[in-house]
């Protein structure tokens, strides 16, 4: 039997999942990072990768046909000709790129995805100004570098990771305006996610007991991997992530982009994964309630009745999607004495914001919403699911799987993206 390995590098640790030809999970392995995200170095990523692989039972490892890796989107690094990092990576949320944004604005098209302090391209421009830049030969994303450790080829990426580098995912080439930046470095060659790149390096295959012909495929980003795991496949199907923040993703035949709202589309084979992220979400609930309270109080809410409380739950001022207003104040009053009523108001209000988000995506041209899968800490809350279904007017279900590693294993199997193999 052939097996497929998906590896997920998140902020708190790395995970691996092995699936069989039927996409059933055969093994799961984990490597939690001991250090805070900022202290996790490429050396630790490398160790995590190899420790994960070693944890997979021998008999499964011998039959793995293909491997894919997802990294954290916009975590990037420079490496020398041998693939050794020349400086510390810039992590996904590093905003030092704000220092080069003005320059970038003068060259990139208005409202382009790269025009954000944390975009990969802004990070690359910032890196260019550092002394260590002269030693660098290749600019890579986290997933590209980790895959390189397995297949040994430098300078290869996928079009999910490369989106925020400015790669034109419609034309499948780097845009001409990028040349005006005259960056003296090898930008990665970009492949469709899941494309086989090369066999494992023979020394890696032998050392870890893999087949010599085990393939390493182009990877993806963490959030797309989680989307692939959800079970959503058809245009109109969406995944809401109810974690610390509220993240919406709607599969569509049309691409929608609007940097003002932080809306952009990833390419998924013949389709587009449109999406936006709001600062509202579970982090605000956590400010007022423990997880146990969230569970018990939610059970007392009558989900069929709408709460009249109209909040905009935020931790601090400002949101981008579905309301683009950096000065938008958190709205959390009036606060009723009864905690059940207060929680009802919060869940109802976040559900309204979610529905408004999907409306905005559809107004901009995305396909009509038909079904919403749900991931994140809030997905287990049946009361909230019922409130959301009332607002969204479509079936709301839990994601089939929520682990990014599972989605990436599907990618390695070649079954991750509709249309990719057609
Ligand atoms: P992160 O985005 O940090 O990975 P998680 O997906 O782990 O977040 O979800 C954590 C969030 O889920 C917390 O902010 C918490 O308030 C929220 N949460 C946990 N349990 C519930 C629940 N039963 N109902 C609603 N929200 C919940």
From TrEMBL:
User: Which residues are in the Carbohydrate kinase FGGY N-terminal domain?
Assistant: 4-228
Q: Which UniProt keywords apply?
A: Kinase, Transferase
The record's SUPFAM superfamilies line, in alphabetical order, gives: Actin-like ATPase domain (SSF53067)
Q: Where is the Carbohydrate kinase FGGY C-terminal domain?
A: 240-413
Which InterPro entries does the entry link to?
ATPase_NBD, Carb_kinase_FGGY, FGGY_C, FGGY_N
Q: What highest taxon heads this organism's lineage?
A: Bacteria
Alphabetically, the GO molecular function entries are: kinase activity
| Family per similarity comment | Belongs to the FGGY kinase family.
Record protein name field = FGGY-family carbohydrate kinase
Taxonomic lineage of the native organism: Bacteria, Bacillati, Cyanobacteriota, Cyanophyceae, Nostocales
């Amino acid at each position: 039997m052939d097996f497929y390995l998906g590896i997920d590098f998140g902020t708190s640790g790395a995970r691996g999942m092995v699936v069989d030809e039927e996409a059933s999970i055969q093994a799961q392995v984990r490597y939690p990072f001991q250090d805070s995200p900022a202290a996790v170095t490429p050396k630790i990523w490398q160790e995590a990768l190899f420790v994960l692989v070693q944890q997979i039972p021998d008999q499964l490892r011998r039959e793995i046909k293909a491997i894919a890796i997802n990294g954290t989107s916009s975590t990037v690094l420079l490496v020398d000709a041998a693939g050794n990092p020349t400086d510390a990576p810039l992590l996904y949320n590093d905003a030092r790129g704000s220092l080069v944004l003005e320059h970038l604005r003068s060259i990139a098209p208005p409202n382009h995805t790269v025009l954000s302090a944390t975009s990969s391209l802004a990070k690359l421009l910032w890196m260019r100004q550092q002394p260590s830049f002269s030693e660098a030969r290749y600019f890579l994303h986290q997933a590209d570098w980790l895959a390189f450790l397995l297949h040994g080829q430098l300078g290869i990426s996928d079009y999910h990771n490369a989106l925020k580098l400015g790669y034109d995912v419609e034309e499948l080439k780097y845009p001409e305006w990028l040349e005006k930046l005259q960056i003296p470095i090898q930008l990665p060659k970009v492949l469709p996610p899941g494309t086989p790149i090369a066999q494992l390096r023979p020394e890696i295959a032998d050392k870890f007991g893999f087949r010599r012909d085990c393939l390493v495929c182009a990877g993806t980003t963490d959030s797309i991997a989680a989307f692939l795991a959800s079970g959503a496949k058809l245009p109109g199907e969406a995944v809401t992530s109810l974690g610390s923040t509220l993240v919406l993703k709607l599969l569509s035949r049309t691409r929608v982009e609007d940097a003002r709202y932080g809306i952009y589309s990833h390419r998924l084979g013949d389709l587009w994964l449109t999406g936006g992220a709001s600062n509202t979400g579970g982090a605000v609930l956590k400010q007022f309630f423990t997880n146990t309270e969230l569970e018990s109080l939610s059970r007392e809410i009558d989900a069929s009745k709408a709460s009249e409380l109209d909040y905009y739950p935020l931790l601090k001022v400002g949101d981008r999607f579905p309301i683009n207003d950096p000065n938008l104040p958190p709205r959390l009053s009036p606060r009723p004495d009864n905690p059940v009523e207060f929680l009802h108001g919060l869940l109802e209000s976040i559900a309204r914001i979610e529905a408004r988000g999907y409306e905005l995506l559809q107004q901009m041209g995305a396909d009509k919403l038909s079904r919403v899968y749900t991931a994140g800490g809030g997905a287990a809350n049946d009361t909230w699911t019922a409130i959301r279904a009332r607002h969204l007017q479509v079936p709301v279900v839990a994601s089939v799987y929520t682990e990014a590693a599972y989605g990436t294993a599907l990618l390695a199997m070649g079954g991750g993206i509709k249309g990719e193999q057609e």
